[in-house]
Amino acid sequence: MKDLFDASLQPCALPELDISLYLLEETIEDRQFSPEQVETIWANMPYWAFAWSSGRALARYILDNPQLAAGKRICDFGAGSGIVAIAALKAGARSAWACDIDAMAHVASRQNAQLNGFKLQCCDNIEEAGEVDLIVVGDVLYDTRNHGLAKTLFAKDCEVLWAESRAQTKLSEYPPVAKYQAQTQPNIGGFDEHQFIHIYHHGS
Question: Residue 53's closest CA among 201, 192, 179?
Answer without folding.
Answer: 192
